[in-house]
Amino acid sequence: MFIADYERLTQETDRFRPEELNPILLGLFGEVGGVMAAAKKLRREGTAFVGYRRAVEEEFGDALWYFAALCRRVGAPLHEVLAAASSQGYLSSVAAAENPPGAVSRVSCPQPSGTFDEVLLSLGANAADLLVLTKQVPDALARLTAFADAFLGALNAADISFADVASANVRKVRGRFLAPVPSDLPEFDGTFLEEERLPREFEIVIRQRSGGRSVLEMNGVVIGDPLTDNIADRDGYRFHDVFHFAHAAVMHWSPTFRALIKRKRKSDPVVDETQDSGRAIVVEEGLSAFVFSHAKTLAFFEGQSSLSFDLLKTVGQFVDGYEVDACPMKLWEDAILQGYDVFRRVKMGEGGIVRGDRNRRKLEFRPLGAV
Q1: What is the pTM of this model?
Q2: Are residues 254 and 349 located together in one domain of the fold?
Q3: N- to C-terminal Cα distance for the chain?
Q4: pLDDT tens-digit profile of 176-190?
């Protein structure tokens, strides 16, 4: 990835004001600490810390994001700072260029310098040196260059690909902060026959029977089994199918809803087994229960227009390896918030009519008896 492309693609995700410097400095320092913490776990737990590479790549990527934001505010473009850092003391080779235009690329790699611990301590020390940075600091460019040098050295010592770090960070931050382009979103079942697709529009009537059991009806037919909260604290989880409806309407994905309405993609045995059957259903149910336990402590997200990054990252870990993993975090956030908006209304009314519209990626609520 060209560094100039990285700068351009991530600048759109910068939600801080151009004059805000302290949040950027603190964010960078914190992410460098994350790199060092992940490295400490590797040393302590060895191969038991199986998430080392992914964790370190993510921390390096987040640190790079803040460093690019810092360079913008100081008026020193990231690509120029990195070029200055790699101009001295680096092994340089000429390689065949991967992408046109141009025939060759110059590749610079830091020469080994110190143990892994010493390299990481140098990265931390150079991050600390940036905490006093302002545009007026005389040696601002020198401090930025020193940090860039330490950053590149740490990447090399950790045996982490800079291209992988930058590319993954672009996908992460753009998927989290930018509204997705509808035409870029996956469809999942568009090539299947109508009877194996989730309906473009659907309407579910939710009623509560005596004894507190919720019952679902679609097109006048009961679907699924009556549900209770299954907990002493009556928290409304009997209405949790609303979350599956939100997944179907907004994400165009829900193995649970497919099973309820018998729309599994059985014409493709591989898709049926890996995406629509038991394990995928358990994953979605587990995901719904996990988010619910979090939402329960936050008034079921009432009044919230966004969700925490940590929650969304955990959601991503839940669905890793399944087709819906192709959907960006921003879409997950939209699906969860829409689902909980409808859930709160269904819970309050002890039932209601839920309408899903995949074309608009919307989930809507009407009270029972409404036209």
Answers
A1: 0.83
A2: yes
A3: 54
A4: 999 998 888 999 999
